[in-house]
Design goal:
By secondary structure, the protein is an alpha/beta fold. The chain has helices at about 45-55, 65-75, 90-100, 115-125, 140-145, 170-180, 200-205, 235-245, 250-265, 265-290, 310-320, 345-355; strands at about 30, 85, 105-110, 125-130, 150-155, 185-190, 210-215, 230, 300-305, 325, 325, 335-340. α11 (about 310-320) packs across α12 (about 345-355). The longest helix is centred in the C-terminal third of the chain and has 24 residues, at about 265-290. Bound molecules: pyridoxal-5'-phosphate.
């Protein structure tokens, strides 16, 4: 096989990403709480924009994403010239890896970090470097200690998935300031909109040259099916990303949906408030059943059980009740289950099922 057709180095190291399941054999009325999707769905304006876009499906979409970038700039107070739009924030993260890392380089992330980070690192031939956290919280000192002359990228999600925890602005700034000069800090803000008043790293992007922030339309905007994300970073980085992306990476319906969604700030606000309310309710109810979790800042909670055996048994019970949550053993958290915050009835249903499991239903 030595002379056969071979992929680039690193690619065969990749374990396929496991998405959240969405159906259960023989169960109707399945409740999917495994992919951090918005239970309220997207803004009506976004759905209407997609319908309108169907009139022009024979036309190529905008290559400069100008209207979407302008809308993002208006709503989030960022500079449109330094906004980059991708096919989900996943594409932005992937292009950053391809552009800035390769064989001999290191890509740093933490032990419970998002499962796509090692995939992007391997895909570009770089070496993934996994750094410990402190009690399910990103540890800035551990990341700084792991950096070398070969470090090119540092990925952290803030809030983090699957832990739901955050680090403060001072800690993020200390991380940016402590990195070696050739390393770019990537702040993955997939859950940033769930945190009231949070700037997700915008001011750091504007005051430093080594910080990039990414955001997505898949979570609070309820548009996971449309595949739109964006990044905000230093002009030289944005220019590099624009060179390597496909000219028509975003479809016209996706661009239209995202533009309408970001402008519907009333819907976004309702989603944030509802999420916080039912997240607190669910976390408290589960804690009373003996299932604690760290205070979550996102749209899911990481429920902790006595051990892996109990977590798996609870997951089996939930599945029999038609409820799908996320096992997170692959994230180094075998004793935990990640449960997306649904609407009121979803939260009540999952708490009821956990109560049955704990033998305390009533
Ligand atoms: C869901 C999620 C994303 C979003 O990915 P998209 O490609 O934008 O759908 C990015 N990062 C983290 C940590 C996530 O949980």
């Amino acid at each position: 096989m030595a002379d056969g057709i071979q992929p680039q180095p690193g690619i065969m190291e990749i374990a396929l990403y496991q998405g959240g399941a969405s159906h259960l054999d023989g169960v109707s009325n399945v409740l999917k709480l495994s992919s951090n999707e918005n239970p309220l769905g997207p803004s009506d304006a976004a759905k209407e924009a997609v319908r309108r876009a169907t009139h022009d499906l024979h036309r190529y979409p905008a290559t400069d994403h100008a209207r979407l970038r302008a809308a993002i700039a208006e709503v989030w107070g960022v500079d449109a010239d330094r906004v980059f739009c991708g096919v989900g924030s996943g594409e932005v993260l992937k292009l950053l890896s391809d552009a800035y890392a390769g064989p001999g380089n290191e890509v740093v992330f933490t032990e419970h970090g998002f499962a796509m980070y090692p995939i992007y690192a391997h895909a570009c031939g770089a070496t993934p470097v996994v750094v410990p956290e402190r009690e399910r919280v990103v540890d800035v000192d551990a990341i700084l200690a792991a950096c070398t002359d070969n470090t090119r990228l540092v990925f952290i999600a803030n809030p983090a998935n699957p832990t739901g925890t955050m680090i403060g602005a001072g800690e993020v700034a200390r991380l940016a300031d402590g990195l070696p000069p050739q390393a770019l800090l990537v702040l993955d803000g997939a859950y940033a909109e769930f945190v009231d008043g949070f700037d997700a790293g915008k001011s750091l992007v504007e005051s430093r040259e080594n910080v990039m922030m990414t955001r997505t339309f898949s979570k609070i905007y309820g548009l996971g099916g449309m595949r739109v994300g964006w990044g905000y970073g230093p002009q030289p980085v944005i220019d590099v990303l624009n060179r390597i992306r496909g000219p028509f990476n975003l479809s016209a319906p996706a661009l239209a949906a995202a533009e309408a969604a970001v402008r519907d700030t009333e819907h976004t606000e309702k989603c944030r408030i509802d999420n916080a309310r039912w997240r607190e309710w669910m976390a408290t109810a589960l804690a009373e059943l003996g299932v604690p979790s760290d205070t979550s800042t996102a749209n899911f909670i990481l429920a902790r059980f006595a051990d892996a055996e109990e977590a798996n048994a609870c997951d089996d019970h939930l599945r029999k009740a038609g409820i799908i949550v996320r096992r997170v053993a692959g994230y180094g958290l075998p004793h935990c289950l990640r449960i997306t915050v649904g609407d009121e009835s979803a939260c009540r249903r999952v708490v009821h099922a956990v109560a049955q499991f704990k033998g305390a239903a009533g």
